[in-house]
What does this fold into?
Amino acid sequence: MQSSQQQIISFVNDRLRNQTAVWLCTILKTWGSSPRPVGAMMACTMEGELIGSISGGCIEEDFLEQLRDGSLKRKYADDKKPFLVKYGETEAEQARLKLPCGGQLHVLLEYIEATALNERIFSRLSTDLANHTKVARILCLDTGEISADDYSSEDAVVIKNNKLIHSLSPMYRLLLLGAGDVAKYVAEMALALEYDVILCDPRPKYLDNWHVNGVEITSRLPDDVVREGFNNPYSGIIALAHDPRVDDMALMEALKTDAFYVGAMGSERTSAARRTRLPELGLTNEQIELLHAPIGLQIKSKTPAEIAISIMAEVTSVRNSVNLN
It folds into this structure.
């Protein structure tokens, strides 16, 4: 799987490699109700092949109409550099575009030609995101020249010295331990939230009847899986086996990594017993304090689905509060 940003960057990269120019639209500012956040993108070829979204569909339709009638190309031809389009400045335009009440968007439009330099830049952006490395797309607003850097900001979009710095985030990944009903619901919700999900359970036959479309499953030892693929800030590890042989094996590695979230399912009593065991596995008190246990928001959940909701709500809360820069 790829995040929406990765999909768009990969789309642009592929089209440039095939000598096809691309329009790239990026939201710079929003006011009032906006269906998409600052930094959201949409890409489109001259033939109307489109990926991504900058609204609920109304602005996309307006963009495609301007693409068909040639007005976009004429605007670009004036000075051959990126230009800003302001949507929803009047009540009449808000009604025409079906924008929410008071909603306004400032969208930057770039015409990206299939040059060797642009191909190299988008190849690097695509590769860095695939390698779970945060990267920024740098755009000179005066010339339209694009570059890439490992610079990143807490803000998705920053403009300084007449340069646009657009921070791009790679796909987040979740490792689920234990092939049970809770893991099925967590996996389904995580996929909907654009996580790449892997389910690990080394116990014989536990994986025989466990399947969720889009989830990779493995019977390898959990500590090896954590060590090799879940040791960066874009990774989360969730222990759901309720079996120390599985959960503790993963946790002894997970709590040593830079993972943004590490949690383990269990009652207060089970969690206390786990914290007593973990020092025996070589973990320090500071590392153990990183563990979320009992897992999830306390919503008095009882069923597997409700437990999964509480888990993913906590994961989302932690992810949104972590500064990766």
